[in-house]
Amino acid sequence: MLTIEEARELVFNRGWLSQTSYDFRSAILGRVALQAYPSGASIYSVDDPPGGMYGLVAGSVKVAMAPGEDGPFIGHIMTPGSWSGYGPAISGGARIIGLTAGRNCQVLFLPLHALNEILARDPASWRFLAGLALIDTKIALGAMNDLTIRDEFRRFLAVLLRAGGFRRGGGDDDGLVWLDLNQSELAHMSNLSRTTAGVFLRRLKAEGHVRIGYGQIGIRAPEALRALFRRGA
Asked: What is the pLDDT of residues 36-53, one digit of tens each?
């Protein structure tokens, strides 16, 4: 378990907040509280009333969406350094996504009134919130691009890599990174049947690319998976 000092240091140097000004980072981190959630716990849900922001510092968080008549379903996985929950500061409205702890996790919580006060005191700091929105837009566009891949196996690989944060690079082929996703969730994210996703997972396991645990999928070698994606075989 991280202390609040360790949690503040992590987001000060990693992710969106590290890309903002020193004064803005200091203002945010001076108003946050450290919270813990057990695996499977809801942090907030789609259509919940307006609330504050959450910065993940340990564990993982599943992001649920409910567009149109469908959902909610898991669309993305947050990793430490990621932030979410700024929508109500922009719209004043209800939540449009939901967050659920993928495993035991810790987050820094910034109340909505505190965020609004920081933005009112320094209107120029809105550009930092816009920067976070741009990060999320890039993630969403990447997900849309992956789902347009016609070949089912390549589409599955693209989504698996994105879920681990390895879609465009990164990762150690000598390590093992566990994703808090079950087979059904990964199948839905990939727009595949559970049966098809199962066939692909078993192939990747047999080839040594992944491990399969209870409610988890472990990526052994991101670069090898990216090479497999490029080959399309």
From this structure: 999 999 999 999 999 999
Query: Which DSSP string do the residues of 154-199 spell out, in sequence order?
Result: HHHHHHHHHHTT-TTS---TTS-EEE---HHHHHHHTT--HHHHHH
Query: Kind and range of the H or E element at 33?
Result: strand 33-37
pLDDT, tens digit (0-9, with 9 covering 90-100), for 57-94: 999 999 998 766 666 788 899 989 999 999 999 999 99
List the domains of the chain with CATH numbers: 4-146 (2.60.120.10), 150-231 (1.10.10.10)
Element (H, E) at 219: strand 216-219
Round to whole Å and give the CA distance between 209 and 224: 7
What order do you get walking across the sheet with 216-219 strand by strand?
177-179, 216-219, 210-213
Burial class from Cβ neighbours inside 10 Å (0-12, 13-18, 19+) for residue 229 reads buried
